[in-house]
Amino acid sequence: MPVESLVETALRDPDPDGTARWQAIAALHERGDLETFTAARRLCGGPTTAERMLGVDILGRLGFVDRSLPILRFMAASEDDPMVLHSVLIAFGHLRDRRALPSAISLSEHPDAGVRYGAAYALPNIMGDRPDPAGMAALRRLAADPDDDVADWACLGVALVSGAAGARSPGSAGRGLTAGGEVQDVRGQVLDP
């Protein structure tokens, strides 16, 4: 299916989490070509929230990290819509590039809980093997967030990053998880290491 047809299909779905939208995005990701990147870049500058979110959601898993990251960092600094900012942060997490860290740290203090949730997702994925102290401080701050979803995700992130960095005893990074992988309340462990 042509890129423009997939973009139109995704834009017709009014639900940001809609099945048709994400099937079209997955097909665009599979293409992984310059034509798809160009369409996503154009969408990122679009006049509607739906267009900008779609562009970001495509770039987040397309694989053009060196070309996508500057676009996403610009959007992180200039975008006003919380839904788009949330998508930008999720894209940062998927790209796993430490160069996104300043943007994610900055947005970790955003007034919108959805944006802070995106930061809680992005930070543990972009801090690298030796976690950045400012990134860890932002993640710990998010672990005390008044929004439970933000705090829970940040707590998991701190536990996983701390475990990956060897800051805890072996196996302790997974203590916040049940055998099935569900998140348990790890706030006490994270806020008072």
TrEMBL record:
Pfam families noted in UniProt: HEAT_2
Domain of life: Bacteria
Spans annotated as Disordered: 165-193
InterPro entries linked to this entry: ARM-like (IPR011989), ARM-type_fold (IPR016024)
Name the record gives this protein: HEAT repeat-containing protein
Gene source species: Planobispora siamensis
